[in-house]
């Protein structure tokens, strides 16, 4: 069956994400993506004129997927505390979010690639904005106390990203159980709650 332009582009982007995760941004080639799908290099270049454009588009594709999942979690009909805890648990390197190797690669490559830096910056900005919003909702509803939702979102993100580097790049440096414990303790402290109250919110 012949794929539409949109379907072919989606297929190429998925393959590019997989190849970047497996080989790294610096090593991945147009030929690797083409070979993974059994298509020609020319087809890949028809949709993405250069490797740099393919890589930037692949990260954008991955970012939109992550943000879509975050939006679904935060859009559930339940308390702000439950939504926030579910989002943090999902995003944490001990949770179900995929692609931490991809994002660590992206952060490193973005130091040299302005287009990629914009993609990673936009993902970071939108993630923090979504977390800030649900924290503010919880404060307004009287679920917890947090005088600085924006600062809390930034600190949580910094902790989760840092733990992701430790768990992904240095296996064994920190146990998954200990990392999850730190995440829960930090979230509870930021919201002025006891850790037990935070755990109870998930039930």
UniProtKB/TrEMBL annotation:
Stored InterPro entries: BetI_C, Homeodomain-like_sf, HTH-type_TetR-like_transc_reg, HTH_TetR, Tet_transcr_reg_TetR-rel_C_sf
Pfam families registered for this protein in UniProt: TetR_C_6 (PF13977), TetR_N (PF00440)
Portion annotated as DNA-binding: 29-48
Organism whose genome encodes this protein: Streptomyces cyaneochromogenes
High-level lineage: Bacteria, Bacillati, Actinomycetota, Actinomycetes, Kitasatosporales
Protein name as catalogued: TetR family transcriptional regulator
Keyword terms of this UniProt record: DNA-binding, Repressor, Transcription, Transcription regulation
Molecular function terms from GO: DNA-binding transcription factor activity; transcription cis-regulatory region binding
Ranges that cross the membrane: none
Superkingdom, taxonomy of origin: Bacteria
SUPFAM superfamilies the UniProt entry points to: Homeodomain-like, Tetracyclin repressor-like, C-terminal domain
Domain HTH tetR-type span(s) in chain numbering: 6-66
